[in-house]
Amino acid sequence: MIENGVIVETVDLCKNYHLGDVTVPALQGINLKVKKGEFIVIMGPSGSGKSTLLNMIGGLDNPTSGKVYISGQDISRLSDGALTELRAQEIGFIFQFYNLVPVLTAFENVELPMMVNGISEKEGKKRAKELLEMVGLADRMHHRPDELSGGQRQRVSIARALANKPSIVLADEPTGDVDTKTGDEILELMHDLNKNMGVTFIVITHDPAIAEHCDRLIRIIDGQIATDKPNVHEILSITDEELKAFKGFTGYISDSG
Amino acid sequence: MQLETLGANLIVLIIPLIIGIIAVLLWKDKRLVKMAFRNLRRRKVRNFLTVVGVMASVSLYVAFNIASDNTYQIVYNLVELLGGNVDFEISRVDGEPFDEDILEDILQIEGVKTASPRIQRYCVIWVFADGNSTAATVVGIDPKYDNEFGDLFDYNTSEPINDLVVGKDAIVSELLMEGITRATEDGELVNATVGDNLKLKYRASGGDVKTKHWNLAAFAEVTGKVRQVGWGSCVFITLDSAQQFFPKCKGKVDTIVVEMDPAYENKWQEVQQRIKEVVGEDLEVFAPKQTNLEANQAVISFIQLGIFFAGAATLLAMVFLIFNTANMTIAERKYEIGVLRSTGFKKRHVFKIFLYEILAFGIAGSAIGVFAGIWLSNGLSWYFKTLIQLPIDVPFEEMKGVSINSAYLMEGFFYGVIFTLLGGLYPLLSITNLNIINALRPEARTSEKLTLKYRLQWITGGSILLGVGMSLIFALPFVLGLEISFLSSVFLLMIATGIILIVGGLKRRYLTIAAGVVLLAVGLFDVFFGGSIISIFVLMIGSIVFTAGILRGVGGAFDFIIGRIPGLKYVSNLASKNIARKRTRSTLTFGIFTICLALVIAIASIMTALEVGILDFVDQNLEGDLIVSTNIGAPPNLSGNITRNIEGIHWANTSEGMVPACTILEGAGARFELWDEDYDSLLMGINSTNYAVVNEKTLQPKIIEPNDTDTFKLFKRLKNPHENACIISDRLAYELNVKVGQKTPIKITTHGNITEFKVIGIMHEDLFGYPQPGYFCLIDIDRFYDFGFDKTAHTFFIKLDQHYMNGTAVDPQVVADHINERWGDEYKLDFVMKEDIKQDIHEQVQQIGAFFNIITYSSIIVGLLVLATTMIKIVSERRREIGLLRTIGIKKQGVIMLILSESIFLDLIGLLLGIIDGYILGYTFVQALGDVGPMQFIMPWDAIGQTTVVALAIAVIGALFPAWKASRIPPAESLRYTG
Q1: Is B309 helix (H, G, I), strand (E, B) or coil?
Q2: Read out DSSP for B613-627?
Q3: Per-residue three-class SS string for B336-386
Q4: Among positive and negative, which fits the CA dihedral B4, B9, B14, B19?
Q5: Coil, strand, or helix at residue A162?
Q6: Could you tell me the CA-to-CA distances from A74 to A29, A39, A83, A84, A158 in Å, in that order?
Q7: Which are the contacts of B567, defined by CB distance < 8 A and separation ≥ 6?
Q8: A6-244, what's its fold?
Q9: pLDDT digits (tens, 9 = 90+) for B431-442
Q10: Any idea where the domains of chain A sit in the sequence?
Q11: Distances in Å between the alpha carbon of B687 and those of B179, B736, B746, B758?
Q12: B564 or B662, which is more confident?
């Protein structure tokens, strides 16, 4: 159940990775709230824990400690089967390298999540067609991924992410593997979907252009939230002292929204 | 030198050469070898499975060949045993009895060892003679034929006797089994009494019926024992008695069985021809043993061929396994190859690294496989030997351990290494064509379209092959007049290859389908018009290639069927598309199953046909309805005794032929030998030169050995009423100048007692092969050894009278009980009915079939390894995809279902093709076997059912662990996988 419009919440979220005898803390006490319909961008240097945070939110991995709430439900205690169902129904994923099934056409890739979710074949085909038209691939829907350009593949990925009408879309570097122009198109598409369909987007990116259009920009450094600002303009005004003060920080800065 | 021997010798010579070359190459490339071994330490499980696969293939190949050699001898002996030692059977064309006289002529034929009649109950005549005139006549009468007995012959002249020169006339009108009667003038039958005149009609030579008269001098006892055969007497006794006490009596027989001298075994047709010339056109001469041995030799050869192909299939499976492994390894390490190349390694260096890895599989697997093969062959041969256990204890040739032909060991190692290299050849060659940039890019496409240059090359090459093949196949017979049946398969393949290359050059997309269609056409053509084993395999390969070409359609059908099941639509959709996409790998996987399962089904159908054929063969050729065996041995004439004394017997024969036994003693100047304590007769061989002045008829009594009480007692035990009587051979009688009724100069002394013997009968010395039971018989020492009286028989075949007593068949158990009652304790007899043997053979054929199933199913083990490595590879390369599927909502069970369904799908294709190909293979085999024996193809539904279960089990077993592992990987980790 969504309380106060918060659709995603993390409480003292920690994740450690064990590499031999070394323990690497990927996330150190992340506290985050995301409201329904927000377009959140998460930025940070490589290895800061962005993708780890996204995986926690998406239920793809289990936290070492802390909690993750999706629509008010603590998903950190769910079984693997329940998590899978949650992903199928509530969460859509967009990956940097598309992760399309190579043997399926664009149409079939978009149809696949609906098949898994038990949607009828007729309904699934209808929706897949609509989604592909929506992302501008009406004339390429029966081509396989290796017959599509990078931008087209990412559009298919977006359409697939929306197949089961998720409430949340998690995007990990959605423009990372395409050229600037295509990236802009992708960004515009995501923005349109966010505004028109009210889907909450949480996007990880290095691309400042994406950050320009977000509702909130969260910056993660060394597994901790360094800043959590409403839009990109404010991030540009952060001082060195503020930045330095973030070293050793364990809580989160309250949102300004 | 035969081709096989030459090949084996070449292999023996080449192997050390190859090992030497390899050793030199390895020493030169130490650095690359080290890298190869370091790489082998990665992917331990897969590499271990690959070595196990090579080992399994080589060991099975070695074991099959060794076991095949050893089982051949066992089966051969079994076949020979069932047929007995009867080489030829002589009978009339119309089945009627014929004169036994022909027997003596047959015995004179070069190559004939023994000949004996199957005794029938007809009139016989027995003649005693001393060389000068007829001494006495014993006439054995079968009351059923009292007016049609054969001619009386004078022994010496062999002329028919028209008038008896001695004796008084007698009249007899009817002869009963138990006595002699005469008719009164009123026609009343009264018992004849001594002094009566008896009249006997007989048919003389020329066919005239004549009447002879004799005065009844004495009655014979009911049992037929002759009290005295006086000079000039004619004694009438029943035929039974005559046969009992004078078994070597001439008469009519329905069949004469002949045993050939083993030295003439390879010239049996010549011996058969000589017999035919002697017996004339009215008699047929069959060679049942040779015919059946030839038929069964063909069967044995086909079984050996089947075993050979099972061994070849395992080697072929190994090629697939290595191809698969090498392909996967190279695909996985493409990036590594790109790095090596970009850092300065040349193509040949990279090639060698992978070559040495593959070679390591081959050498390690083959070496272990050879030793495993020896061990396995012992087990297989022992198992097969225990299957061949007849219910009768017959001492046929035992297999003294397993004889191991070292050529098979060499071949196994050689083929193991060579086939391993063959399997890795294509993947290795692909390394040389790898573009460095493409290799370094993670998701680069590697398939490139054929350039125009390559297409032209394909078309040109194909046209040349097509032209040459067609010219040879059509032109050669006309131009050179050659028979090209053997080469036609080769030329057809040339034509096929040519067509395939042309199609491939024109449109590569249709290459696979075209290849499949052409191979199917060639195979079908050759099967129907040639029928060689090669054509069947071409057909099998064609079916596999064709299916590979239409794999997408097959996948669509699978998706259509399985997708109907609720919740499995996405599984079937993904599985079918994944199978179709990786065509080469999918084809290799289902292809190996096709070949293995086809062999299983083919062998099952062949075994079914063989069982029917063997049972028919046993029915037709097993001597008799009842088989009597003895471990301790019995005199061969027991068969004669059985025939004479037991009711319901048509004939009896021994596996050693009709050689009689006799009791003989050892002694100076003579030789006596004892048979056993209960004697049939006592035969003494006499060296007539021990006796002085025999030619001048001056008799000097001689005292001869033995000189002990026990031996003397033998004479007392002779079962005849004439004490101190003897029967003497005609030659000896002449030399010693004795006549019937006189005492012989031969005396036996023991403890000072001298016993003289009175001659009661003189017999032609040839006839002492069947000495008079219960009598003391004298014969010249030279002839003594001719009769082989030391023989014993262990097996007796008895044919029952099927129309005995009002047309009812005889119960074999009743007959067995009667025989056992009389001789069972003495000779420790065992009895087996023919029907029991057939049942035992049925069960043993079933077990033999199971034995072959073990062989063929074991080749499926290699298929299982291929499947397992394939599924491991599938999971490995699709890790990210699996992570994605988990991300979009497919649960762990769904992932397992997906992997399993791909495995089952591949398996089902292999199963269906295997059933079809197995049917064709089995049908062709059985039809070919039918040329030499009664064979009938029967669809092996049992085997198909078993094979289906096994195939599905393999599909699940091979994929279960990889599927389970794949489902366990956290999605986040899978998505991070970069391959």
Answers
A1: helix
A2: HHHHHHHHHSS-SEE
A3: HHHHHHHCCCCHHHHHHHHHHHHHHHHHHHHHHHHHHHHHHHHHHHHHHHH
A4: positive
A5: coil
A6: 16, 22, 10, 14, 26
A7: A118
A8: Rossmann fold (3.40.50)
A9: 766 777 667 665
A10: 6-244
A11: 42, 11, 11, 19
A12: B564
For chain B, the residues whose C-beta falls within 8 A of a C-beta of chain A are 443, 445, 567, 569-570, 573-574, 577-578, 580-581, 880-881, 883-892, 894, 970-973, 975
**What is the predicted ipTM?**
0.79
* Beta pairing, strands B252-260 & B98-99: antiparallel
Rounded to an integer, the average pLDDT of A205-212 is 76
Could you tell me what percent of chain B has a pLDDT over 90? 1
SS3 call for B239? helix
Burial of B383 (0-12, 13-18, 19+ CB in 10 A): middle
In this prediction, residues A108-125 reach a mean pLDDT of 88
Band (B153; pLDDT cuts 50, 70, 90):
very low
Say if residues B730 and B763 touch (Cβ distance below 8 Å): yes
**pTM for this entry:** 0.60
- Is residue B237 within 8 Å of residue B140, measured between CB atoms? yes
CB neighbour burial string for A188-218, b if at least 16 within 10 angstroms, e if fewer:
ebbeebbeeeebbbbbbbebeebbebbbbbb
* CA–CA dist B192, B201 (Å, integer): 17
Indicate yes or no: CB of B881 within 8 angstroms of CB of A160.
Answer: no
pLDDT of residue B127: 37
Chain A residues near residue B881 by CB distance under 8 angstroms: 99, 101-102
| Tokens at B598, concatenated | 């086809």
The pLDDT of residue A12: 92
Check CB contact under 8 Å for A160 and B887.
no
B892–A81 C-beta distance less than 8 A: yes
φ/ψ (deg, to 5) at B246: -135, 70
Measured CA to CA, the distance from residue B220 to residue B246 in angstroms comes to: 15
Chain A positions in Cβ-Cβ contact with residue B892 (cut-off 8 Å): 80-81, 84
Q: Residues B62, B370: contact at Cβ < 8 Å?
A: yes
Cβ–Cβ < 8 Å for B283, B96:
no
- Assign B969 to helix, strand or coil: coil
d(CA B570, CA B770): 89
**B826 contact partners, CB below 8 Å, separation of at least 6:** B634, B678
Identify which of B580, B880, B972 has the shortest CB distance to residue A99. B880
Q: Which domains does chain B have, with CATH numbers?
A: 1-86+316-448 (no CATH), 88-116+255-286 (3.30.70), 123-250 (no CATH), 626-653+795-834 (no CATH), 663-790 (no CATH)
pLDDT digits (tens, 9 = 90+) for B745-795: 665 554 555 566 777 666 666 555 544 445 566 766 556 556 555 456 777
CB B970 within 8 A of CB B337: no
Tens of pLDDT along A126-185?
A: 999 999 998 889 999 999 888 898 889 999 999 999 999 899 999 988 888 778 888 888
Q: Which of B1, B66, B248 is nearest to B770 (CA)?
A: B248
